[in-house]
Amino acid sequence: MANDLGIGTIEIPPGVDKYQAASGADIGIIFFISVMVKLALIAAGVWAMINIFLAAFSYFSSKGDPGTYQKTAQSLTNTVIGLVLLISLYTIVAIVGLVFFGDAGYILNPTLQPVPGL
């Protein structure tokens, strides 16, 4: 049908094809998205932790400078907002999985079915 619309075909991204073949179904792209979401959550969590440590160091080494206190407060506020967005992302992905696939963990924790003979 895509060729009829002049769009062409969509090739499977590199790396997804091995999961696609192993599952025997179209879960490969879901597994790929799951890995990317988890990787983004881990990277953002580490970044938030680093920001909190840097803000604490800045606060303790400010020597009473009000400008530094304000920068530190802004940095901590932005970090907390970022953490709230991370939790929201995780929740939104679970809701999308629940609405479209009937399972909140479908995208977050996909299961690959064993292929006979492997």
Task: Please provide a written account of the structure.
By secondary structure, this protein is an all-alpha fold. It has one domain (16-101). It contains three helices and no strands.
Give a summary of the structure in a few sentences.
The chain is mostly helical. It has three helices and no strands.
What is the 3D form? Answer: elongated
**Spans of 5+ residues with little confidence (pLDDT < 50)?**
none
Largest sheet, strands/sense/barrel: none
Give the mean pLDDT.
78
- Report the β-strand fraction as a percent range: under 5%
Structural class: mainly alpha
**Total number of helical segments?**
3
Order of helices and strands: HHH
List the SSEs and their pairings.
Layout: H1 16-23, H2 28-60, H3 66-101
Identify the notable features of this structure and list them briefly.
single chain; 118 residues; mainly alpha; elongated
